[in-house]
């Protein structure tokens, strides 16, 4: 799944030139669910950076701990928890990496999954709004996960879906039919993502040291056969 994120300072305006950023991007070396997170949604026809709670909380949800922080792409159009949000309220979460844990005989080894060029990633998500009064509300979101590609499958079976910047507005636009939005949710190309081992101190969500994201081994990446 995607229970921890690495978000470094990112040049979002360069990534999405039309972005309206009235709030600062929430950053951190080891961000966990059940806390505020920056997301991008379409507002008056333009992508806008806003803050939301990481854990989808529709109005009928009774227990906050039951708020899902991830939604499986295969269930978006069938589960009532996700269906309405997927149809009308899609979002993007800008990150620099996603942590994943590879099972070992005696422990789980954490990895940081990033772009091979260490550039920013736009992760697919859905959001909802819960009105606490006629004038007050809070927004919440969940990331959308898809099966991993063959390169990363030994580390984890699922990762958040990545939306390329050129497809961002199409993904965010509620006028995009769900079938077309669903088609954007595929496993990342093998050459896009890599992963490297990091310190097990990232296991503690309270640990916010920059060293959480420092490589402790080489990057696992797709190798392109050289022509002879």
Kindly list the characteristics that best describe this protein.
mainly beta, 13 strands, 5-stranded antiparallel beta sheet, 35% strand, 228 residues, globular, 8-stranded mixed beta sheet
Molecular structure report:
It comes from Halomonas saccharevitans. Belongs to the SOS response-associated peptidase family. It is an enzyme of class 3 (hydrolase). The protein is mostly beta strands. Helices cover 11% and strands 35% of the residues. It has 4 helices and 13 strands. The protein has helices spanning 12-15, 80-88, 168-172, 178-183, and strands at residues 5-7, 20-21, 28-31, 36-43, 46-54, 70-72, 90-95, 97-103, 108-115, 121-131, 137-147, 158-160, 193-197. The strands form 2 sheets. Strands 2, 4, 5, 6, 7, 10, 11 and 12 form an 8-stranded mixed β-sheet that branches. Strands 3-1-8-9-13 form a 5-stranded antiparallel β-sheet, with no helix packed on it. Strand 4 (36-43) and strand 5 (46-54) form a beta hairpin. The protein starts with a strand and ends in a 31-residue tail after the last strand.
């Amino acid at each position: 799944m995607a229970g921890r994120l690495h978000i470094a300072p990112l040049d979002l305006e360069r990534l999405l030139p039309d972005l309206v950023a009235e709030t600062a991007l929430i950053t951190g070396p080891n961000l966990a669910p059940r806390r505020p997170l920056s997301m991008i949604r379409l507002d008056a026809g333009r992508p806008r950076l806003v803050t939301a709670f990481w854990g989808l909380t529709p109005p009928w949800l009774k227990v906050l701990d039951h708020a899902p922080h991830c939604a499986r792409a295969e269930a978006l159009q069938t589960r009532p928890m996700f269906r309405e949000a997927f149809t009308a309220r899609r979002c993007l979460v800008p990150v620099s990496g996603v942590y994943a844990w590879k099972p070992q005989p005696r422990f789980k080894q954490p990895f940081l999954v990033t772009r091979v060029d260490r550039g920013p990633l736009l992760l697919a998500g859905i959001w909802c709004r819960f009105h606490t009064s006629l004038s007050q509300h809070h927004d919440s979101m969940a990331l959308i996960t898809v099966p991993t590609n063959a390169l990363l499958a030994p580390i984890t079976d699922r990762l958040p879906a990545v939306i390329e910047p050129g497809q961002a507005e199409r993904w965010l636009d509620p006028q995009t039919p769900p079938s077309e939005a669903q088609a954007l949710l595929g496993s990342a190309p093998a050459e896009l993502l890599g992963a490297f081992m990091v310190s097990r101190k990232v296991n503690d969500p309270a640990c916010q040291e920059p060293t959480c994201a420092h490589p402790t081994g080489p990057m696992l990446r797709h190798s392109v056969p050289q022509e002879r």
